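Project standup — Tuesday

K.O.: blocked on the structure for the chain from last sprint. Re-posting the sequence here as requested.
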Amino acid sequence: MKNNTSRVLCIGAGPAGLTAARRLSLAGASVTVLERDPVYVGGISRTEHYKGFRFDVGGHRFFSRSSEIEALWEEILGDQLIMRERKSRILYRGKLFDYPLRAFDALKKLGLTESARCMLSYFKARLFPIRDPQTFEDWVTNQFGLRLYSIFFKTYTEKVWGMKCQEISADWAAQRIKGLSLGTAVWKAFIPGWLRKAGDTPKTLIEFFKYPRLGPGQMWEAAAEQIQQAGGEVLLGMNVQDLALDSESGVWTVTAVDAQGQSHEYQAEHVISSAAIVDLAEYIQPAPPEAVLTAARALRYRDFLTVALIVRDVDCFDDNWIYIHDSSVRVGRIQNFKSWSPHMIPDPDLNCLGLEYFCFKGDGLWKSDDQDLIRLADEELIHLGLVSPGHVVDGKVIRQGGAYPVYDENYEERVDLFQSWLKKHRPGLYLVGRNGMHKYNNQDHAMMTALLTAENILAGEELWDVWRVNQDADYHEVGEDRTLAFSERQVPAPYQKNG
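H.V.: unblocked you, prediction finished:
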């Protein structure tokens, strides 16, 4: 360990930033974390509070193919992790379909005629697949057939992204639903668990998962506390303004403004950023070349808001969440926070449902008044038949900017250009996490990029190729265990710098 007294600054206190900071601070490094949010840590994995109710900004299952990540969650939170059963369904034409798709359930609810059409469409796609699929529509059609794609994927996906499926890269489908096909769904429906091979369950089909008793934010609140106990700092309400590198000393000066408008400067040998690339590019001084700035500014992000409705718990669905495949409403997904953890609901006679609306900053939905959004969510719940009139008693709106990096045409080339310039001209500045790397990854992947980056810093050399995390969708969905044997200094082959 060549650099265990390094001064490190982390931009962002989400899963990636806090994972890196915790690893480094426990190893003896001097670490400061700067977080823009004035109240919460956890980023998009935070848990917000309202009148004793706790609710997530998007659902977060704690399951990973990496035993290193699983062990880290246990280490941070211990007995506050509880085991929960996964249940999610798709609402289509007024009927709730099990997801993952189950053959008997789908057959019964689609009807014999529609089911036959779906099967014929599937066999056609298998016999005559689209060669070299470039778009989300191409990729999913190859996996499920055009008819099932139209029923169970198209409407929801276009709500999420605000763009046509023909405009979304196939990379996104490969990352998010790799390993799922109609054949897989039928196999899971008919074959008992004891007959399946160990490890053949795609990650999105996992039936049980761990979950913090008080929501995912509890994990990151605990991680922040452990960083501080180890001598590090986690500072909230800090807006980064500038990042400047002294080329002679190799020391970074980071300027941030606090909630009171006061400016602060920090020096660090290493900066780990989970900020969106489009923001980070503006912080760097002197500014990157125009071509690099243009590439960074062209990266797009999808925003969303959650309307958390406190309702009387009468005949509420018991799913973790329901996907809404209905173009007559604007809501895309509905969470049941009591099904995630009953400890998040202080009154047993009440429940809290989170209605997720996908949008872009500045559009009509984003700028709507909170009371108008609460009223819209109430009306849509009633329209969908999920609650009865008069059951909503209160509500809270949470806006989340930059939630999802968009995989549109040329996004990869833009990220590669920025990353290549950064590596050559700004050594000591590392990108981690979902927005930091512009990768639509899960929480465990964001944490993995942070752990590997921390290990590189502690080793004083680039042993691990962080950009290979989540490079192949097999790791994301069906890959084998990627244990990181840090204590034995063994570099796992998938991430070896020269592997």
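K.O.: great, moving the ticket to review. The chain has three domains: 7-47+66-76+214-299+409-495, 88-196, 301-405. Residues 443-459 form the longest helix (17 residues).
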